Amino acid sequence: MESVPIRQTQTQVRVNTFVRSVYNWMAIGLGLTGIVAFYIVNSPSIMQLIIGNRLIFFGLIIGELALVFSISARVHKMQASTATALFVLYAALNGATLSVIFLAYTKSSIASTFFICAGTFVACSIYGWTTKRDLTSFGGFLFMGLIGIIIASLVNLFLRSSAMYMIISYIGVFVFVGLTAYDTQKIKNMALTQPADLEAGAVRKGAILGALSLYLDFINLFLMLLRIFGARR
After folding, report:
1. Domain ranges within the chain, ordered by starting residue
2. What is the spatial distance between Cα 41 and Cα 34, in angstroms, rounded to a whole number?
3. Residues in Cβ contact with 50 at an 8 Å cutoff, skipping those fewer than 6 apart
4. Positive or negative torsion for Cα 229, 171, 68, 155
5. Residue 90 gets which letter from DSSP?
6. pLDDT in tens, 127-151
7. Between the chain's N and C termini, which has fewer beta carbons within 10 Å?
């Protein structure tokens, strides 16, 4: 009969492997986004194509939203390779749209904000992993806050209020700090409850879904912090 310590060791190995895969794919996504953004900002013709044609710019944004909803809602019905390809495509498209921040903010403030964001993200992720508190109900509250941010941001497109812009940014930091901890705990629980005989493809899809959640938390936290700390050109 298999001893308890051996089963515990196997479970820990399985959890570590899954979590490592989640963070690896998240890092790949962030790296690809950064590379694409840097390439485009140093390619005047492509940059002009994106910012000079509203149809292309908003088409990219709509494409990104479609990819996020597609991965989130249908990942379990996809092949693992399809889910992976869609995640990589989303990260690349996001790099294209985020390239415009290099026109609005100085490179030094973008770099410093990135490191502030990375440190904050790591701290929140560690908290989400180690806390004994169930963050499920907290997650529902944060999701409502996220909806509020989206609505307020749309309204401010017409009002163009700098005060509301900053209020949204500070609230956004709070929301995405909380979502980082919440999503980390959710990924931990997902790893702990995975059946031992779960096929590799299903594990990969779970890792892609987890990576997408953390990727979105990181990118949005970065953008909110950039609004606060970024030095405009």
Report:
1. 4-229
2. 11
3. 40, 56, 57, 60, 96, 97, 99, 100
4. negative
5. H
6. 999 999 999 888 889 999 999 999 9
7. N
Would you say 114 and 222 are in contact if contact means Cβ atoms under 8 Å apart? yes
Across the strands, what pairs with 232?
Answer: 105
Per-residue confidence (pLDDT) for residue 4, from 0 to 100: 54
Q: What share of the chain is helix, strand, coil (3-state, %, to 5)?
A: 85, 0, 10
Burial of 139 (0-12, 13-18, 19+ CB in 10 A): middle
Compute the CA torsion angle 163, 173, 39, 46 (nearest 10 deg).
-40
Q: SS3 of 171, please? A: helix
Alpha helices by DSSP H, listed for 3-100, are 4-41, 44-51, 54-74, 80-98
pTM over 0.85: yes
